[in-house]
Write a structure and sequence with these properties.
Elements lengths: L4 H20 L2 H5 L2 E11 L2 E6 H10 L3 H4 L3 E11 L2 E10 L2 E12 L2 E11 L3
Parallel strand pairs: 1-6
Antiparallel strand pairs: 1-2, 3-4, 4-5, 5-6
Protein name: Lumazine-binding-domain-containing protein
């Protein structure tokens, strides 16, 4: 088993692109952080959430971005654990009236770290 600081640094960079893509509504940048076969699951304010990548990016594209709306947006990396070619990141994204906690699974594919699964939930705080 190998935990790699270089992997954590690379994943942190991917997460910064992920957050920027969400904030700006940049579906090209956001899409570049995902493996094409990703599935997204969870619950949003008690409602089941399940989307393909195309459905998710379509939703991002059709809404007004937090940047363009002038609404507050915060994002935090809570933790990253990496072992060999797999990793998991726990992050928090606050935008509009949502307070999302997300678990993002990563896999290193052809030397590039990509999000291969996204699990999301809204938490009232």
């Amino acid at each position: 088993m190998k935990t790699n600081q270089e992997a954590i640094t690379a994943i942190t960079q991917v997460l910064h692109h992920y957050f920027k893509g969400i904030y700006e509504g940049d579906t090209i940048l956001l899409g570049s952080t995902f493996h094409p076969g990703i599935l997204l699951f969870g619950d949003i304010k008690g409602q089941p959430y399940a989307k393909t990548l195309d459905q998710y990016l379509g939703g991002v594209q059709s809404r007004k971005s937090p940047k363009d709306s002038g609404q507050p947006f915060t994002s935090d990396i809570i933790s990253i654990d990496a072992v060999n070619s797999i990793a998991i990141a726990k992050v928090r994204v606050q935008m509009y009236d949502f307070n999302y906690y997300e678990f993002l699974s990563f896999h290193q594919v052809n030397g590039k770290w990509l999000i291969v699964n996204k699990m999301i939930t809204h938490v009232d705080e």
